[in-house]
């Protein structure tokens, strides 16, 4: 039994105890995804991203490598890089982060960067200029096909999620993302997490499908 299967079994057990419509909620901090071309430019030709620790989504990991992000008005230092390398480079920021660097980042699903603003990304004396690729990640739920069947949803659906936390709130129009490689979890950014006083082991309840 591999790690992905173990994680999925744990998710199912938790769901049984907490209720069939309950999902874990996690805060996702600012980070970047790099294509291999930009990895080569920033860290040296042929460089491979170095895993530091695994993330909740199987196959995804926090890297040892870090970058700085420079925009028209400011800089974010020591920004996390998540691996493995992807087809396109993108930076996922909170709205507060975007204002610090001075870009009007749209709220988008990860990977949808067309027409988004760019910035300069540096590592040491090396740099990459992005013409586009800066977004505020739309809140979303990762789930397996089995989770989707249990919750009565499908890929790209939008649902409402009532989050049970210090400042309880219902998030509307949360995007559903279904893939057999995923582990059940709702992701919100740090602005959202701070606003609702998110704590470890917070859960949310899928209460309605949005029209």
TrEMBL record:
Cofactor names: Zn(2+)
GO cellular component: bacterial microcompartment
Catalyzed chemical reaction(s): propanoyl-CoA + phosphate = propanoyl phosphate + CoA
Keyword annotations of the record: Acyltransferase, Bacterial microcompartment, Metal-binding, Transferase, Zinc
The protein's Enzyme Commission number: 2.3.1.222
Highest taxon listed in the record's lineage: Bacteria
Enzyme class, broadest EC rank: transferase
Compartments, record wording: Bacterial microcompartment
Keyword Acyltransferase: yes
Pathway(s) annotated for this protein in UniProt: Polyol metabolism; 1,2-propanediol degradation
MF terms in GO: acyltransferase activity, transferring groups other than amino-acyl groups; metal ion binding
GO biological process: 1,2-propanediol catabolic process
NCBIfam families recorded: PRK15070.1
Free-text function comment from the UniProt entry: Involved in 1,2-propanediol (1,2-PD) degradation by catalyzing the conversion of propanoyl-CoA to propanoyl-phosphate.
Family per similarity comment: Belongs to the PduL family.
Protein name: Phosphate propanoyltransferase
Naturally occurring in which organism (per UniProt): Pelagibaculum spongiae
């Amino acid at each position: 039994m591999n790690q992905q299967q173990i994680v999925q079994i744990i998710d199912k057990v938790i769901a049984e105890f907490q209720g069939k419509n309950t999902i874990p909620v996690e805060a996702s901090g600012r980070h970047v995804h790099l294509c291999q071309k930009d990895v080569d430019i920033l860290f040296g030709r042929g460089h491979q991203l170095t895993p530091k620790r695994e993330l909740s989504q199987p196959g995804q990991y926090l890297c040892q490598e870090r970058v700085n992000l420079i925009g028209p008005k400011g800089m974010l230092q020591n920004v996390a890089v998540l691996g493995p390398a992807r087809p396109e480079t993108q930076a996922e920021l909170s709205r507060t982060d975007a204002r610090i660097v001075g870009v009007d980042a749209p709220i988008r699903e990860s990977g949808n960067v067309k027409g988004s603003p760019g910035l300069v990304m540096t590592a040491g004396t090396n740099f990459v200029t992005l013409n586009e690729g800066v977004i505020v990640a739309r809140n979303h739920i990762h789930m397996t096909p089995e989770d989707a069947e249990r919750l009565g949803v499908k890929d790209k659906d939008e649902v409402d999620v009532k989050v049970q936390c210090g400042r309880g709130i219902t998030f509307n129009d949360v995007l559903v993302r279904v893939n057999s490689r995923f582990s059940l979890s709702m992701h919100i950014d740090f602005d959202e997490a701070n606003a609702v006083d998110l704590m470890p082991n917070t859960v949310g309840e899928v209460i309605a499908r949005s029209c």
